Amino acid sequence: MSEQSVRPQRLLEVKGLKKHYTRKQGLFSRQHTVIKAVDGLDFYVKEGETLGIVGESGCGKSTTGQLILQLLEPTAGEIWFQNQNLTAMNEEEVRRVRRELQIIFQDPYSSLNPRLKVKDIIAEPLRVHRLSTGAETERLVAELLEVVGLGAQHLNKYPHEFSGGQRQRLGIARALAMKPKLIVCDEPVSALDVSVQSQILNLLKKLQQEYQLTYIFIAHGLGSVKYISERIAVMYLGKIVELATRDELFASPRHPYTQALLSAVPIADPRRKKERIILQGDLPNPADLPVGCSFHPRCPLASERCRREAPQFEQVRDGHGVACHYPLNS
């Protein structure tokens, strides 16, 4: 068997993806401001892998997930899923493909309808897409509850009767109901206690192996992303500033922003000391981004070139790309 035949195929490919919003500068003003929530993303996800996307609030990572799922219409760019251009499809075509694209939301309570019983929440996508009816639907729902570590005894309960971790398990069961190929995990553990976070992460890894799932795992911090991801993309103000394999990124971060994020990851060994990198200032106003590199107002290494010229995303090593004029030699 040739190397090409066993190499994982690209399940998803994003090319030049943008999402810009326009708003008036004032109530009676005719001038408009453009907010670049996502500004030219290029990346791919291979079958069976987990791509982590990490960054501060407001960097555009959740918007990226919604664009991939076609919950938002992109301003520009293409999204290819299984060699089909989602951005060129009509509504009915997207509806059919969406069976294979699911999402797990951040808030395990607000994402569940409080007026519906568990059996109806999980069965809803099956009924909408007419994949099963009657007793068959209830059997499938009971099986899904077992798969996520709950049980059929919960079928007639309401969301408020569950803990946060249990509600997130319900959200996972609902996502699995359609037998998807790609699941966008939009900060699925950030609202949970630390002990529960590890349980949910272990469940996601177990399900990935059993059902040959592909994940895009979105998170604030690098701790959970490191545990579950094979490759990691670091976002800052709508752009990917660094992308590498997990091991490469943690061993040799090349962007100053990535280094700052890594310095905030706790170390379990109290004998080890690590210097914390504190970034000065806040995120720039997305409606008034700085000229040149958007990170330069907070970057300790910024030069005059950084203030004039935006860096291009380039490969510094095979599979390791960075958008920086002066990538660090780690």
Can you lay out the helices and strands and say which pair or pack?
Elements: H1 3-6, E1 10-24, E2 32-46, E3 50-54, H2 61-68, E4 76-81, E5 84-85, H3 91-97, E6 101-104, H4 118-128, H5 134-147, H6 164-176, E7 182-186, H7 194-211, E8 214-219, H8 222-228, E9 231-236, E10 239-245, H9 246-251, H10 256-263, H11 304-308, E11 314-317, E12 320-322
Parallel strand pairs: 3-8, 3-9, 6-7, 7-8
Antiparallel strand pairs: 1-2, 1-4, 4-5, 9-10, 10-12, 11-12
Helix pairs in contact: 4-5, 4-6, 5-6, 6-7
Question: How would you briefly describe this protein structure?
Answer:
By secondary structure, this protein is of the alpha/beta class.
Biggest sheet descriptor: 8 strands, mixed
Average of pLDDT: 90
How many β-strand stretches?
Answer: 12
Order of helices and strands: HEEEHEEHEHHHEHEHEEHHHEE
Q: Can you count the helices?
A: 11
What gap, in angstroms, lies between the N and C termini? Answer: 38 Å
**Helix amount:** 25-40%
Give structural notes.
With 330 residues, this protein is of the alpha/beta class. The chain is built from 11 helices and 12 strands. Strand 7, helix 7 (194-211) and strand 8 form a beta-alpha-beta unit. Residues 1-5 have low confidence and may be disordered.
